[in-house]
């Protein structure tokens, strides 16, 4: 009787909860140009859970993440682990941009007492969760950007955005490999065994030109009036395949991932694949499988067409066969892109140059965020922003100077870049000489500077595939015309070689320097504590003296 | 005493002395011309200014500019760690660069020339003191010791030599051309010397407090100041009063700094920086490589011992030994500071070198002149070369530069100990003659 | 109706009798074995591409112990550099320990707990002694107790009395011995199998003085440990001799194998290894012949079945209800994605 009751209860709970969390999986495949194909996995878990906390059990939502965000009072969490650089000029904009290496930014809830402590512990937990070196993040390499990041999810209507609850840090040196993918996959409900997740085979993923793991957690509205909230987890993987490494231009899921989709994930509400048909006009191709549906999306004046496939229980693979020989197409440059590089030579001083190109026919407002390590000593008075020969005055400048061994430099510049122009932001710095124990084991490899982030609310959606703020899934981005489209461009990370001491010298240096000190001490001691006296000159030679001394000794022995 | 002064007055009116001012003016003009050319017409100004021998984190003009810029856009310059000047200095620089409307180079040249003139005046006072001492003690000296004494000519010429050494030694020229703020420090320090030697208790304590607020190490000069006024006033109270003046002035300066800054961040950024040596950028001193290579758990111990070594270790013994010659004591202390302070620069070296002509009468008996001169010359050339090899062409490493700074420190140590040694030897000879005989036997002079 | 009730009762009787029998068995097993859980600490101490073989070594052992049943949560894997995704690796996300490239020891399911710069002497000693800073995640802690058998495997470059970490620091044999003694005093292990594949490996365990440690090193003092072979496709030596042969042995072992540690200690005779494998048995109380290899390399543990467990689902329901009871009337909003520039323009 008891058992029957429990069983009944479980089914009841199951029904209750299954309404509460929903999991969808999507895959967007977009041929970027003749050679590169962009595949973007988008796993979304939505969970109707109140803001006050969630003591209830989730069905699909990864419990470990729930515990972490509740324990550290996290409002919003964004993690990126990326290998490779997204080439904006050639590839347009990604769905989610990420800087090379590890990147993490978090909004804590406004009632958090000690944000720094929570941040440190949160990064520690995440380093354990994702096998990444996030534990190296602490207050010394964290900044709180004021303008570049805003909460992507909802906030309480009565509250203002306060950037002191935001922590941003990046680990440009972080390497992303299977050891990060494994725990990431374990957060998926179907654990990469079935559904789209089964495509994620490490050998194939790491063979790409660009791969990026993402984990984005935010609060969303669950009703029309936005009085109920829920938690949304977006897990993304972006990959850019190169036909040169694949060997052929024709691609298919099997070629990309080594296998097709074997079975659908039962826990997923929907499993969908979208293939962008845009390149079909310049490089015509034929889909190997007839799409279930063709979606035409008009967004910000740009029309695009997607072939949609619903993944079912059967083995599934889809691909593309190109109909013509490779044609060189003129690459239309995106509206905004940026590059960063170092100037100067030697290890004494150098400069940091950021070039932002505005291809739009009108001026664009951009926010530049630079997160510069303390081992570069910045001279803000050398900051020069030019467009051509003319100086460009920043609309606002926010600078929090760094401090040796305690804080990174935080520089944010609000710029209005004129139409069709290139703005150059340059800045000079000195290299710092560190203590020998502060250098990493491979000191001569160099030290990294994280990427600059250029945020812009673009007026048009050309090359834009990102999700709207109120959307959680790729399908929400179809026909989603808004007043603007937020892009965040992340530039190259840089590497500087700091001057190094000789690591094998500590004892020698200590001895030599102390000898010099003693060299002063001896004579000064003599001069100040002794006085001159005349003494009878000893005419004996040195040999005589020695003999005399020995003689005394001999005598003593005879005694 | 009056007779002496009259005699001295006669000396001053002698034709040679008359043209001394003309010579000084000529020296100043030509020195100014050299500096002016280097700053405004040669392309080496920035190269010189960027050189680490000239600009340390404490005195680099680039950092002052950064501080002024940050201040102008409403960011507290002491929030970061680019600026290690006190707020009062910062406002002084702001005033002279913005309000006076002179170009920076001109200000630096003027203050360097002013320093030379003040040093000239200060050493004239010193020479007068020596002259007085000679005349007073003439009868006490042993026979045949005239060669140890100054000639009147020497006394007259020495100040001019001092000015010339200051104006034309490459260390000071580079210091001025490189816009190191040590130029201003030197100016205040020479003012202190001038006021001290012209026996103005309050003014000297004021200038010493300014020096101390710029570079904390100058605090040890209160001891010679006290000695001087103790001797002068023949009373303890007034001598102590000068020290109290110093403390009060210093406190006022700090308070002004605090009011200007509104936070106390500058304490940590100025004095904390000088004392705890966080920036290990190489300089001509001994600290940088020593603390780069130091094991972390011994760091505090060695920082304490090195700072004590630079300041109070030699202060008391030297003050006891040379209490009669305050100027020599100050020179020795400045020299020791230049060798052992945490961020020394060539400007400090330039100043102490230019004080040496005052002790010209000792040179003949010093033993290591040649060695010291050669090391100075070699390190002066080799320093920048090995730096370039290490930092720019990657074909040398830090040890090379460290070697050069070690040699430089050794040369300076030899110089200061040599002078002190010769000084006490001369004292001995003046009083006991230069005969080295006890009865009929040959004898030698030993320290015991 | 009767029959319906009879079936469950039969089943229950059956289960009970099974439990009683199995418990008897377990009890006897229990007496023999005094360890309750298995842990592994696998450390690669060297960085740089030319040390590929050390990472292959450690990953090979990792793969074996995982295959023999130690779960990832009880394996602490420390790898000082990234070989699988190193730009020089011709096949990304793989590490091979054999020129034929048939076993990818890195695999598709791997969790590295300490990586890159985290692999330091300090972290290693802290891990062993359990003196980690607060906030360290569980996966980076060695949560052992007095019933834990630990396999410690170290590989890297060593010398007489030390082992280098990342070419920049080293752990001395005395430090190592003291760390193990601290573990013993803190009751952090039952038995340790200490395995080293470095040059002069024997020098590292010579100073051990804590009980219940069985140590094996790939070479004696004064000897070098040598690598096994080169993979021309990868371009570097890919595995060390001792680990290669130890692995060959372990491949023949499975979870219920009866092979013992004495056999394992004989692995890699001098003709194969070129160096002499050193063994230290004097601290170990048992005869290695009686110790199954799975005592260290596997996780075969006795299971105790508890009968009187009461499941109380009530709290579960109440919680669920309480969630539904707390909807708050609050309004929320989305924030514009970027600051408005006009507010800064006068």
TrEMBL record, chain A:
<feature type="signal peptide">
    <location>
        <begin position="1"/>
        <end position="18"/>
    </location>
</feature>
<keyword id="KW-1133">Transmembrane helix</keyword>
<keyword id="KW-0732">Signal</keyword>
<keyword id="KW-0812">Transmembrane</keyword>
<protein>
    <recommendedName>
        <fullName>GPI transamidase component PIG-T</fullName>
    </recommendedName>
</protein>
<dbReference type="Pfam" id="PF04113">
    <property type="entry name" value="Gpi16"/>
</dbReference>
<keyword id="KW-0472">Membrane</keyword>
<feature type="transmembrane region" description="Helical">
    <location>
        <begin position="505"/>
        <end position="524"/>
    </location>
</feature>
<dbReference type="InterPro" id="IPR007245">
    <property type="entry name" value="PIG-T"/>
</dbReference>
TrEMBL record, chain B:
<feature type="transmembrane region" description="Helical">
    <location>
        <begin position="239"/>
        <end position="258"/>
    </location>
</feature>
<comment type="pathway">
    <text>Glycolipid biosynthesis; glycosylphosphatidylinositol-anchor biosynthesis.</text>
</comment>
<feature type="transmembrane region" description="Helical">
    <location>
        <begin position="270"/>
        <end position="289"/>
    </location>
</feature>
<feature type="transmembrane region" description="Helical">
    <location>
        <begin position="326"/>
        <end position="358"/>
    </location>
</feature>
<keyword id="KW-1133">Transmembrane helix</keyword>
<feature type="transmembrane region" description="Helical">
    <location>
        <begin position="370"/>
        <end position="392"/>
    </location>
</feature>
<feature type="transmembrane region" description="Helical">
    <location>
        <begin position="202"/>
        <end position="227"/>
    </location>
</feature>
<keyword id="KW-0812">Transmembrane</keyword>
<keyword id="KW-0337">GPI-anchor biosynthesis</keyword>
<dbReference type="InterPro" id="IPR009600">
    <property type="entry name" value="PIG-U"/>
</dbReference>
<protein>
    <recommendedName>
        <fullName>Phosphatidylinositol glycan anchor biosynthesis class U protein</fullName>
    </recommendedName>
</protein>
<dbReference type="GO" id="GO:0006506">
    <property type="term" value="P:GPI anchor biosynthetic process"/>
</dbReference>
<comment type="similarity">
    <text>Belongs to the PIGU family.</text>
</comment>
<keyword id="KW-0472">Membrane</keyword>
<feature type="transmembrane region" description="Helical">
    <location>
        <begin position="398"/>
        <end position="424"/>
    </location>
</feature>
From TrEMBL, chain C:
<keyword id="KW-0732">Signal</keyword>
<keyword id="KW-0337">GPI-anchor biosynthesis</keyword>
<dbReference type="InterPro" id="IPR001096">
    <property type="entry name" value="Peptidase_C13"/>
</dbReference>
<comment type="similarity">
    <text>Belongs to the peptidase C13 family.</text>
</comment>
<dbReference type="Pfam" id="PF01650">
    <property type="entry name" value="Peptidase_C13"/>
</dbReference>
<dbReference type="GO" id="GO:0042765">
    <property type="term" value="C:GPI-anchor transamidase complex"/>
</dbReference>
<feature type="signal peptide">
    <location>
        <begin position="1"/>
        <end position="24"/>
    </location>
</feature>
<feature type="active site">
    <location>
        <position position="157"/>
    </location>
</feature>
<dbReference type="InterPro" id="IPR028361">
    <property type="entry name" value="GPI_transamidase"/>
</dbReference>
<feature type="active site" description="Nucleophile">
    <location>
        <position position="199"/>
    </location>
</feature>
<dbReference type="GO" id="GO:0006506">
    <property type="term" value="P:GPI anchor biosynthetic process"/>
</dbReference>
<comment type="pathway">
    <text>Glycolipid biosynthesis; glycosylphosphatidylinositol-anchor biosynthesis.</text>
</comment>
<protein>
    <recommendedName>
        <fullName>GPI-anchor transamidase</fullName>
    </recommendedName>
</protein>
């Amino acid at each position: 009787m008891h058992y029957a009751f429990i069983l009944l209860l479980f089914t009841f709970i199951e029904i209750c909860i299954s309404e509460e969390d929903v999991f969808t999986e999507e895959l967007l495949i977009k041929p970027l140009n003749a050679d590169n194909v962009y595949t973007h996995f988008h796993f979304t878990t939505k969970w109707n859970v109140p803001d006050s906390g969630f003591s209830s059990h989730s069905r699909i939502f990864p419990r470990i993440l729930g515990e972490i965000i509740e324990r550290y009072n996290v409002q919003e969490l964004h993690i990126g682990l990326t290998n490779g650089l997204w080439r904006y000029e050639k590839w347009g904009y990604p769905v989610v941009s990420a800087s090379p290496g590890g990147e993490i930014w978090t909004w804590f809830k406004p009632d958090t007492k000690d944000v720094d402590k929570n941040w440190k512990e949160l990064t520690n937990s995440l380093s354990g969760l994702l096998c990444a070196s996030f534990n190296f993040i602490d207050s010394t390499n964290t900044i709180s950007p004021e303008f570049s990041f805003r909460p992507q999810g909802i906030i309480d209507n009565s509250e203002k955005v306060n950037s002191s609850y935001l922590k941003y840090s990046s680990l440009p040196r972080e390497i992303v490999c299977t050891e990060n993918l494994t725990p990431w996959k374990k957060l998926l409900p179907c654990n990469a065994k079935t559904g789209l997740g089964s495509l994620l085979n490490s050998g194939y993923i790491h063979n790409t030109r660009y791969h990026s793991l993402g984990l984005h957690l935010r609060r969303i509205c669950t009703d029309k009036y936005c009085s109920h909230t829920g938690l949304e987890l977006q897990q993304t993987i972006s990959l850019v395949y190169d036909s040169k490494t694949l060997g052929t231009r024709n691609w298919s899921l099997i070629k990309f991932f080594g296998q097709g989709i074997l079975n659908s994930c039962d826990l997923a509400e929907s499993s969908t694949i979208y293939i962008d048909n845009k390149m079909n006009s310049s490089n015509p191709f034929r889909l190997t499988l007839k799409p279930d549906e063709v979606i035409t999306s008009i967004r910000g004046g740009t029309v695009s067409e997607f072939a949609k496939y619903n993944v079912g229980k059967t083995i599934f693979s889809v691909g593309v066969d190109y109909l013509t020989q490779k044609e060189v197409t003129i690459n239309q440059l995106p509206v905004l892109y940026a590059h960063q590089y170092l100037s100067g030579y030697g290890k004494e001083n150098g400069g940091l140059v950021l070039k932002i190109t505005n291809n739009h026919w009108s001026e664009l407002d951009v926010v530049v965020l630079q997160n510069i390590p303390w081992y570069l000593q910045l001279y803000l008075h050398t900051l020069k922003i030019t467009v051509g020969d003319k100086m460009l005055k920043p609309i606002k400048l926010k600078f929090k100077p760094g401090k040796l061994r305690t804080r990174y430099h935080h520089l944010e510049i609000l710029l209005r870049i004129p139409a069709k122009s290139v703005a150059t932001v340059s800045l000079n710095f000195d290299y710092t000489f560190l203590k020998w124990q502060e250098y990493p084991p491979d000191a001569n490899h160099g030290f990294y500077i994280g990427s600059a982030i250029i945020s812009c609310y673009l007026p048009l959606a050309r090359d834009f595939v990102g999700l709207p703020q109120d959307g959680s899934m790729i399908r929400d981005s179809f026909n989603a015309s808004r007043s603007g489209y937020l892009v965040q461009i992340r530039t190259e990370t840089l590497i500087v070689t700091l001057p190094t001491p000789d690591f094998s010298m500590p004892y020698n240096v200590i001895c030599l320097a102390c000898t010099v000190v003693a060299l002063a001490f001896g004579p000064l001691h003599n001069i100040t504590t002794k006085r001159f006296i005349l003494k009878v000159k000893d005419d004996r030679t040195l040999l005589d003296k020695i003999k005399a001394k020995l003689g005394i000794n001999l005598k003593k022995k005879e005694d | 005493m009056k007779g002496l002064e009259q005699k001295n007055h006669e000396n001053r009116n002698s034709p040679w002395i008359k043209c001394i001012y003309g010579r000084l003016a000529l020296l100043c003009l030509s020195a100014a011309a050299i500096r002016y050319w280097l700053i405004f017409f040669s392309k080496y100004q920035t190269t010189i200014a960027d050189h680490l021998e000239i600009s340390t984190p404490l005195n680099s003009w680039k950092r002052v500019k950064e501080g002024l810029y940050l201040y102008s856009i409403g960011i507290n310059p002491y929030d970061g760690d680019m600026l290690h000047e006190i707020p009062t200095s910062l406002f002084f620089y702001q005033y002279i660069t913005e309000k006076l409307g002179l170009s920076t180079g001109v200000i630096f040249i003027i203050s360097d020339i002013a320093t030379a003139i003040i040093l000239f005046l200060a050493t004239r006072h010193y020479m007068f003191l020596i002259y007085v001492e000679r005349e007073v003690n003439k009868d006490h000296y042993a026979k045949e010791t005239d060669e140890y004494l100054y000639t009147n000519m020497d006394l007259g010429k020495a100040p001019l030599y001092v000015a010339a050494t200051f104006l034309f030694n490459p260390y000071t020229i580079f210091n001025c051309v490189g816009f190191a703020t040590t130029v201003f420090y030197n100016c205040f320090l020479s003012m202190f010397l001038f006021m001290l030697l012209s026996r103005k208790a309050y003014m000297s304590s004021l200038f010493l407090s300014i020096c101390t607020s710029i570079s904390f190490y100058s605090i040890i000069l209160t001891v010679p100041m006290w000695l001087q006024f103790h001797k002068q006033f023949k009373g303890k109270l007034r001598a102590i009063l000068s020290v109290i003046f110093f403390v009060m002035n210093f406190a006022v300066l700090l308070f002004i700094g605090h009011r200007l800054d509104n936070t106390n961040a500058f304490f940590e950024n100025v004095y904390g920086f000088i004392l705890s040596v966080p920036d290990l950028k190489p300089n001509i001193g001994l600290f940088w490589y020593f603390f780069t290579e130091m094991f972390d758990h011994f760091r505090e111990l060695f920082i304490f011992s090195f700072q004590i070594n630079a300041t109070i270790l030699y202060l008391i013994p030297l003050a006891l030994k040379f209490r009669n010659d305050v100027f020599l004591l100050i020179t020795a202390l400045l020299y020791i500071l230049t060798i052992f302070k945490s961020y020394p620069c060539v400007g400090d070296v330039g100043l102490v070198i230019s004080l040496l002509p005052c002790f010209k009468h000792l040179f003949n008996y010093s033993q290591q002149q040649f060695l010291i001169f050669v090391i100075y010359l070699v390190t002066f050339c080799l320093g920048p070369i090995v730096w370039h090899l290490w930092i720019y062409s990657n074909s040398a490493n830090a040890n090379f530069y460290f070697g050069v700074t070690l040699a430089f420190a050794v040369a300076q140590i030899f110089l200061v100990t040599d002078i002190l040694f010769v000084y006490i030897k001369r004292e001995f000879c003046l009083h006991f003659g230069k005969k080295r005989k006890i009865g009929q036997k040959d004898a030698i002079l030993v320290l015991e | 109706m009767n029959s319906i009730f009879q079936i469950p009762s039969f089943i229950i009787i059956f289960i009970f009798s099974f439990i009683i029998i199995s418990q008897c068995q377990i009890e006897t097993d229990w007496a023999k074995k005094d360890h309750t859980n298995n842990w592994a600490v696998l450390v690669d101490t060297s960085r740089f591409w030319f040390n590929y073989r050390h990472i292959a070594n450690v990953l090979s052992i990792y793969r074996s112990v995982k295959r023999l049943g130690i779960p990832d949560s009880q394996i602490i894997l420390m790898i000082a550099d990234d070989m699988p995704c190193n730009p020089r690796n011709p096949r990304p996300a793989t590490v091979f320990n054999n020129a034929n490239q048939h076993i990818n020891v890195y695999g598709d399911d791997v969790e590295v707990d300490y990586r890159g710069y985290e692999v330091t002497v300090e972290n290693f000693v802290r891990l062993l002694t359990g003196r980690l800073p607060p906030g360290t995640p569980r996966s980076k802690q060695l949560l052992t107790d007095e019933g834990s058998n630990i396999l410690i495997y170290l590989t890297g470059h060593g010398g007489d009395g030390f082992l280098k970490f990342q070419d920049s620091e080293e752990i001395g044999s005395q430090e190592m011995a003291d760390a193990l003694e601290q573990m013993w005093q803190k009751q952090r292990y039952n038995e340790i199998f200490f395995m080293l594949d470095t040059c002069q490996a024997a020098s590292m365990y010579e100073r051990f003085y804590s009980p219940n440690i069985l140590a094996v090193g790939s070479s004696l003092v004064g000897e070098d440990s040598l690598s096994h072979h080169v993979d021309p496709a990868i371009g570097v030596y890919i595995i060390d001799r001792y680990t290669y042969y130890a692995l060959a042995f372990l491949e023949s072992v499975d979870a219920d194998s009866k092979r013992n540690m004495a056999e394992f200690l004989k692995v890699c005779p001098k003709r194969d290894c070129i160096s002499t494998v050193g063994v230290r048995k004097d601290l170990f109380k048992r005869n290695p012949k009686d110790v199954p290899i799975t005592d260290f390399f596997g996780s075969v543990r006795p299971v105790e079945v508890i009968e009187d467990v009461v499941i109380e689902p009530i709290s579960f329901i109440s919680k669920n209800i309480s969630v539904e009871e707390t909807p708050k009337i609050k309004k929320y909003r989305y924030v514009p994605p970027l600051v408005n520039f006009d507010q800064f323009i006068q």
